[in-house]
Amino acid sequence: MSYRYLGNKSRISDWIVQNISSRLAEGSSIVDPMCGTGAMSEALATKGYSVTAGDILSFPVLHAKARLLPLTDSHFEGVGGSYEHAIRALNDVEPIKGFFWEEYSADGSPRNGSKPRKYFTGENAAKIDGIRKQLLTWKEHERNMAAVDRLTHDLLLAVNKVANISGTYGYYCAKFGKNSLSPLNLNASRTNSFGTKMNVVQGDVLTVSKANPADAYYLDPPYTKRQYGGNYHILETIALHDFPEPAGEGGLRDWKPTASDFCYKRKAKLAFENVIKNIDAKYVFVSYSDDGQVSKEELIELLSSMGEVALHERSLERYSSNPNGIKKSHVTEYLFELKKREFNIA
Ligand SMILES: C[S@@+](CC[C@H](N)C(=O)[O-])C[C@H]1O[C@@H](n2cnc3c(N)ncnc32)[C@H](O)[C@@H]1O
Fold it and tell me: Are 219 and 33 contacting, i.e. CB atoms less than 8 angstroms apart?
C-alpha cells in the first residue's frame, strides 16, 4: 500500500521490528496506539506479535482494520454477495453532483463563496459522491459494518491516487497533475490472516494506554506542528461518511477536536510524560526524529526517570519540494527503547 502520509514508517519498518524483536519474545502483546497507515501494526503482526492498533482519527482505524482483521465473503452477504462484487458495484455507481463535487472539485462552487477547490476533477468528485451514497445505504445495516469499513478503506486508497495535492490535503495544487486526471478506481485489498490475536480501537493515546495493559507499546507520535486532522481532512470526512462545514479556501473540516498535544512545542514533552507514565507495559519503544518538538536529550532525560533507556539512530533520506524541484536532505530517525521500572503486567 503506497501512501504519502507524514511519518509513515514503511521505509524503516524492518529496522524498527528488528530492534523491537531483539527485546520482545514472539507471541508477546504490543500496542501501536498512533498507528497512522497501520504499516507498523502490520509489520509487528507479521513478526508474530499480538497487536492492538489505534489512532485518534477515524481513517487510520480503517487502515488498521484492513491490515489486521480477517474478512470473508460472508461479511459481504448484504453488499453484493462477495468482496469482488461489492468493488465492481462501487466502480459502476452512478456519479452524483453532491457534497464532494460542490466543495472539493474544479467544477463545484463552495458554500462559503471560496473559489472552486481543485482537489479532484469534477468527474472523480461525482464518482466519490456516488460511492459515498452507496456506502451510506449499506451502512444502515449493522451486519454490513465490516464490509463497509473495508470498502471505505479501499475508497481512501483510491482517493489518494487521484487527489490533486502535493503530499497532504492542507491545500490543492493549482494545476491538475497526470495522476489526478486519471479516473478514480477502487481495487480489492489483500486480506491477512494472522495466527495471533488482533484488536483495533479508536481514541486518544492516553485513554487507550490506560485501558490496554500489554507486554510492550510502540509509540509513533507526530513530530512536528502539522496536525493530522487538518492535513488529512478529506480522508477523515470519507471515513466518517459525514458532511461537515468546509472552512476557508482549503475547505478544512473542524480538526480542533482531534488536535494533538504532540504538535505543540510547549505541550509535547508533558504529553510524552503523561502517556508513558500511564502505560502498563515492560517495554516502551518510541519513534521520533531530529525534526521533533522535543530534543533527543530531553527525551533521554524523561525516559531515564522511568527506567533503563537505549537509543538506536539511523539517517534517512528526505525528499522535500522547493521551487527548483526536488531537494534531497537527510533526517535522523530515532528509536528509543525504555525498559520500565514500574509496571503491573506479569
Ligand atoms: C507519525 S504518525 C504515525 C505513522 C504510522 N506509524 C505509520 O507508519 O503510518 C502519527 C499518528 O498519531 C496520531 N495521533 C496524534 N495524536 C494522537 C493522540 N493524542 N492519540 C492518538 N493518536 C494520535 C495521528 O492521527 C497520526 O496518525
Answer: yes
Domains of the chain: 1-70+194-222+260-346 (3.40.50.150), 75-191+238-255 (no CATH)
Q: For position 324, what pLDDT does the model report?
A: 54
**8 Å CB contact between 233 and 242:** no
Within 8 A by CB and 6+ apart from 80, the residues are 86, 88, 89
Write out residues in the chain with pLDDT < 70, as ranges: 1-2, 319-328, 345-346
Does this model's pTM top 0.85? My answer is yes
Q: Is 267 in the pocket of ligand 1 (CB under 6 A)?
A: no
**121 Cα–ligand 1 center, Å:** 29
CA–CA gap between residue 47 and residue 288 (Å, rounded)? 22
| Helix pair 145-162, 58-68: axis angle to 10 deg | 110
CA of 200 to the centre of ligand 1 (A): 14
pLDDT tens-place string over residues 119-150: 999 999 999 999 999 999 999 999 999 999 99
Ligand 1 neighbour 40 (Cβ under 6 A): yes
